[in-house]
Amino acid sequence: MKNKLLFLGPPGAGKGTQANLYCKKYGLDHLSTGDLLRDEVSSGSVLGIKAAEIMNKGELVSDDLVLSIVEGRLLNTKKGWLLDGFPRNVNQASSLEKLLEKINQPLEAVILIKTADDYLIKRLLERGRQDDNEQVIINRLKIYREKTSPLIDLYTKQGILEGINGNADIDVVFSCIEKALG
Ligand code: B4P
Fold this sequence. Notes:
The chain is α/β, with parallel strands linked by helices. It has helices at residues 15-26, 33-43, 46-55, 63-76, 90-102, 117-127, 134-148, 150-157, 170-181, and strands at residues 4-8, 29-32, 81-84, 109-114, 161-165. It has a five-stranded parallel β-sheet with strand order 2-3-1-4-5, with helices on both faces. Helix 2 crosses helix 3 (46-55) and helix 6 packs across helix 7 (134-148).
């Protein structure tokens, strides 16, 4: 079974939702940069205060901060892992590639959760997290298109990307992911 995975998709596509379910069922380490950053924010650290300002505008937190968080976690994982929300730009992707080479654990599959904008906006407004208001959501979608979507091409060329329809109920999307990774 493939156990070095990455879930990719626009904000609100359900990366976190599906990654949680998948990691629980298959016993993988769930590495969500969004969750790790929110932990840093709740700790009230200087880095957390800086990160909160950026996240609340829907921008990307600095690559160095995110990388140091991911590196620490990946170096300590004993089982398989699932990256959720990282990498989010080409620079993070190339740093990840170098890191995975160093630890000799190449990425085995990328799941792209493809979801239409009207679903994304509705889901995020319903969730109502601090960074889930209309103006910030629109900025997050713009940043996804500009900075994150080039990764689709990158992983397609590597032959490891599978696209999944995310415009469906949570359990239906989950079954599609299991099928793609099975
Ligand atoms: P993330 O925490 O990664 O969150 P997200 O992309 O907005 O949402 P996700 O796709 O995980 O949606 P979810 O399952 O929760 O990022 C937040 C911020 O952190 C970023 O804007 C950025 O500032 C920062 N950040 C994170 N990683 C970074 C990085 N690598 N570099 C720099 N900055 C970084 O689902 C959303 C809602 O939809 C939930 O309420 C869920 O219940 C619902 N839902 C999910 N699937 C559904 C379905 N199939 N049907 C109906 N509802 C569904």
